[in-house]
Amino acid sequence: MKHPRNLFYAQSGGVTAVINASACGVIEAARARPDLVGTVYAGRNGIVGALREDLIDTSHESDATIAALRHTPGGAFGSVRYKLKSVAENAAEYRRLIEVFRAHDIGYFVYNGGGDSMDTANKLAQVAASMDYDIACVGVPKTVDNDLPITDVCPGFGSVAKYVSISTLEAAFDVESMPQTKVFIVEVMGRHAGWIAAAGGLAGNDPGEPPHLILFPEVAYDEDRFVEAVRDRVERFGNCVVVASEGIRRADGTFVAESGQKDDFGHAQLGGVAPHLAEVVRGRLGYKFHYAVADYLQRAARHIASAVDVEQAYALGRAAAEMAMAGVHGKLPVIVRTSDEPYRWEVGQADLSAVANVERHLPPEFITEDGFHITEACRRYLTPLIQGEDYPPYAGGLPMYVRLQRNVVPRKLPAWAG
Amino acid sequence: MKHPRNLFYAQSGGVTAVINASACGVIEAARARPDLVGTVYAGRNGIVGALREDLIDTSHESDATIAALRHTPGGAFGSVRYKLKSVAENAAEYRRLIEVFRAHDIGYFVYNGGGDSMDTANKLAQVAASMDYDIACVGVPKTVDNDLPITDVCPGFGSVAKYVSISTLEAAFDVESMPQTKVFIVEVMGRHAGWIAAAGGLAGNDPGEPPHLILFPEVAYDEDRFVEAVRDRVERFGNCVVVASEGIRRADGTFVAESGQKDDFGHAQLGGVAPHLAEVVRGRLGYKFHYAVADYLQRAARHIASAVDVEQAYALGRAAAEMAMAGVHGKLPVIVRTSDEPYRWEVGQADLSAVANVERHLPPEFITEDGFHITEACRRYLTPLIQGEDYPPYAGGLPMYVRLQRNVVPRKLPAWAG
Prior knowledge:
The structure is a homodimer.
Chain A: E1 5-11, H1 19-31, E2 37-43, H2 47-51, E3 55-57, H3 63-68, H4 91-103, E4 106-113, H5 115-130, E5 136-141, H6 157-177, E6 183-188, H7 195-200, E7 213-215, H8 223-237, E8 240-245, H9 273-285, E9 289-293, H10 296-300, H11 307-325, E10 331-339, E11 344-351, H12 352-355, H13 376-382, E12 394-395, E13 398-399
Parallel strand pairs in A: 1-2, 1-4, 4-5, 6-8, 6-9, 7-8
Antiparallel strand pairs in A: 2-3, 10-11, 12-13
């Protein structure tokens, strides 16, 4: 490359406590090489920002502000759930992207997201090549669900795992204190894969310690078996702490959260897994219960982020920008584990095409035979990922999270009609 | 007093992130005065432990273990929800308590709880006097609900306030990143008083910043007004973050959480406030939403306890033991605020009878005129209470919370027939 070109960065899918740490890594790496990168333009709301030519000029943000992204949850540039169709189905979208990139001299495309986003980056890489547009397309993995293949772990997962294991531990101490409360259920994320629920298992070390039951999407939910297991744990241990994935399904494939009930307006009741399970416990066992639904709190809990996770999120952001600047195309940086204990990892590379659209589930050897807990192999995998507490700075009792100015780059093209 | 006598300590009601810090203060103060206190006996499950003569000998716990109680959530000796009836209604229970105390030479009674517990301590003080049994009865205030009168704040509240304000802030960053999610609702504790919900208001500084709406038990819930307010905030700010107290009621006094629905078993649906409000939002506005139910997670969140709260919980535990050792009877130590800014407080004393059975609600001047937010006066009150982060020590990625041995004191009396 003869002259510095601009770098396009965007965030996609559900955000995490550390996706901004990756953004920080991308931008800091780019700023360190003014010979290669002119300006980092961020897409507002992911790839949609590129389609709409809605670009944020990050050069207006100070180095201190960019550094503060490392400890700020959410997606600083706005995320999106938008999957590009295949090139055959919607060539116009891909042409539009290339037009926008050409208009703003984008030479590097760094897309931070999950499997769908890696698919988008991969398709764009192919289209750019076929249109003879010179651009390096690189992904940055991200997902609390930890469901990408190849990479040992996805940034975002370690922090939600830490939050869920600590919250389960703390709630267990509370439940143990309250003799009347027999069952406590915490609902955690994971629509298709049980990695987050598995992390709840780290709160205890043996079957007598909470959590007593973990419900994984990978194991068919059977109400009778669940009820018997709860009764057994309450009788043996005095109470039963349950970590339930939002994505658990019955053997026929229906989600447990689809309760089939109607509300006052005649709409299907959303339900939620925890309220449903709580109602089952009350109806069939008569036990007093409490339940919590962690929802966004778990993936936004930057206040108790895993130091390992923050470091990896930052490292992969940096690596992605450096790969793009080195002309690497159609790949993403991944975490390679070289040792469990002591935990050691390094940054490797994988093809976007190998990561796109492949969902990694909990392997059978990570789930105990009865389907209700994690194995030692699973602990060996999970434990290193929650190590260290990367506390944000505080002022006035609250974390000093940063909001960006988000200065808009003047448009050069007609509005997108798509 | 001629010889050292034993001290009875027990925990009552819903536990908090810092009730064990009070226990630590009581036990450390007692251990510092072997001339006055022989052994600290803890009641297993509050006053019920005394009735059943189920006493835990804390002398078997090392100084290091007792010190670790300061950073351990839950109730180390087990709590209970049990309110003694009036002396006229159940004189046998009071006589039994005095018998147990006499059998174990209990000269000091320190009861750690909310309004009901202060009532219990107060009644016991009266009965002991009438039975000519020499005992100093002192309370230690505790409640996440912050609903005791006289004391400026109840230990336990500051930490849940910190958790709720941080969680609301973090969830708001998440929601802002997700353009499709229009409404986020977090349900917090507070069956009768809105102090915890009010704390969510600290996450933002002006009406444009989340949370956009707070629903207090002190303000009658009107569905139409709520729906219009949500629509207004979404239109003006792009999304609407709601902090809802579990205890909100309609003008007719019915709890919103009583949904009137039935589940598959024909039982009344528990509902929960957040799922109900979410369904209203979907049904009447069609917005995409998320909701979280913090439940026990909020009051057990020792990992992000307020340093002010921990210090006050410990100080009141110490003060209670010292008062009892000094022969103070029928009183409890309270927090007296001497300055808002800089925040200054000291320990005062109040009569148990003045605190028992009086519920302190949010005063009208703490709620904005529209009923949906907190005023500057409320911020001045709340802000000092969430200052400082009292982090527990960690090992292996998890907080080092301590479980006691709980050695049982041999029984000297026949089993309680009550």
